[in-house]
Design goal:
single chain, 104 residues, mainly alpha
Length: 104
């Protein structure tokens, strides 16, 4: 999913690395999900503050993310949302490619 979304560090991403995890969350919101207004993303931008987890939980709640216990599950859910939104934003492009692949 990271590669499909053209995430710059897709090959080297470590979900257990707190800095990388928080950076990915911010990148997903800034580039793909775009649920919050730009000014409302300030809490997510402060990736090195103790308050970040609280901001992240608030963000997940605003997205109506199901209660997940593991970091991997949460990031997978966010990635799935981002892929769905990316497809919705570029549906004509993806449909054109699918049609070209079917017509042989």
């Amino acid at each position: 999913k990271l590669a499909a979304l053209n995430y710059p560090s897709a090959e080297n991403f470590d979900v257990q690395n707190q800095t990388e995890f928080r950076g990915l969350v911010l990148w997903l919101e800034d580039q793909k999900i775009r649920h919050l207004k730009i000014d409302d993303r300030a809490g997510l931008r402060q990736v090195n503050t103790p308050d970040w987890d609280k901001q992240f939980q608030s963000y997940l709640n605003s997205l109506e993310c199901p209660k997940l216990t593991r970091r991997e599950e949460t990031i997978d859910w966010l990635l799935g949302l981002a892929v769905r939104l990316e497809y919705g934003d570029n549906k004509e492009t993806y449909s054109k490619h699918n049609t070209q692949n079917v017509d042989m």
